[in-house]
Write a structure and sequence with these properties.
Blueprint: E1 3-12, E2 15-25, E3 30-34, H1 41-48, E4 54-60, E5 63-64, H2 70-76, E6 78-81, H3 93-98, H4 104-107, H5 110-120, H6 122-126, H7 137-150, E7 155-159, H8 167-182, E8 186-190, H9 194-200, E9 203-208, E10 211-217, H10 218-222, H11 225-231, H12 240-245
Parallel strand pairs: 3-8, 3-9, 6-7, 7-8
Antiparallel strand pairs: 1-2, 1-4, 4-5, 9-10
Bound molecules: adenosine-5'-triphosphate and magnesium ion (MG).
Amino acid sequence: MLLEVRDLRTGYGAVEVVHGISFELAAGSMVGLIGANGAGKSGAMHAICGLLRHTGAVLLDGQDLARMSAHDRARAGLIMVPEGRRVFPGMSVRDNLLSASLHRRVRGRAQQTLDTVFHTFPRLQERLNQAAETLSGGEQQMLAIGRTMMGQPRVMVLDEPSLGLSPLFVQEVFRVIGALRETGLTILLVEQNVHHCLELSDYAYVLEQGHIVLQGAASDLLVDPRVRAAYLGTSNQPSEAEEVRQ
Ligand SMILES: Nc1ncnc2c1ncn2[C@@H]1O[C@H](COP(=O)(O)OP(=O)(O)OP(=O)(O)O)[C@@H](O)[C@H]1O
Ligand SMILES: [Mg+2]
């Protein structure tokens, strides 16, 4: 397993919101984490990336990162796409991208990675010299993902990348995540868009009130009556029309 999280507990101040969860990602796989608002998804993602204090183990390729800062975890290759499409607003698209590839592990391949980013997001190349703050919301999300790519993640963590985007950009973001996955990147995806998330993922976990209550192949969860009833707004009970016919 490339990433193994064991018995992770975290919270805000004295309030624990994630109560000892364990999950893992095989290299090259995409794993989804779904759950209702307030279930603890963001807390769990912040914890594994070192942005929130936690207990438990976070093993990247066997090395426990649990005592490292967020910065050092990112250098090791566990990198989260920042929420709210956080980019440096006054800096150009080019400088936003290049500033994310300065440390030793990735520097040598910065130009090559930049080419990959432009291949994935031609729009960023067209806007290379434009200040990030002048990009649309969807373009800023592309830039935030592009910056994360520049850090050459071994595991990319995405927390609700489609949140607040127009339907067109939602499609674009999922297209890009699918394309990243095709490159062999290992991805951990938190998404309120449960249908898209399960369609793209290999495996998924369901988090409820800080506990993992269900896990399985994403294709199985997609048709699981419990998942359908709770997160997809449908159950596989026969519809009223079908009941009438029977
Ligand atoms: N900064 C904070 N301080 C105190 N409590 C917080 C803070 N952020 C979140 N919480 C609480 O922690 C719990 C888990 O929140 P978290 O943001 O991890 O949930 P989530 O699953 O990501 O939800 P959402 O789908 O709304 O993003 C919730 O009860 C929330 O109210
Ligand atoms: Mg959240």
